Amino acid sequence: MEKTAYTFKEKAILTNIIKEKGSVIECKKTDAVSLEKKSKVWEEIYAYYNAQPEVGCKRTTKQLMKCWANLKQAKRKIITEEKYDILKTGGGTRSAKEHDTIMDLVEEAAPHLNIQLGCQYDSTARYENHNNLESIEQQRELHELRMQAAKEELEAIRKIDEIKLATAMAEFKAAKKALDS
Per the database entry, which stretches of residues form a coiled coil (predicted)? Predict the structure, then answer.
């Protein structure tokens, strides 16, 4: 079986579906009832995902679960790298990172990935206490701007796809009409 990488659109579709069902999927409970609910929700995600016209390659439930786990792991890695970068520069100017819209969608679908537990005895405590008040609001504003940009980008892609589909349908109808006459 040939492996096909997920496209930007496919990842965006998956994260948006999971955002709606996230409370069940991301629940930490592992009892029989919770596992059954998760299984049913993953089957719903599987059916809805594969029904989307933008999906180029049909995926199994297991593949979708693995993709979601990989996306969350990538987001955790980015969070860790950002924290390390802050500590490395002493809170100063950080190295520029390329913005990833998918990671914003992952954070929106699974906000618990960015939970930070503080410790006053940790080597980062002095920095965190000093910068925490002003940076939290800045981070929140930046996050909102990124989420808005991601939504606008997805809407633009959807409109382009609609135009392409309408054009293809018009060409098809014209070709059919030409063949019929």
Answer: 133-160
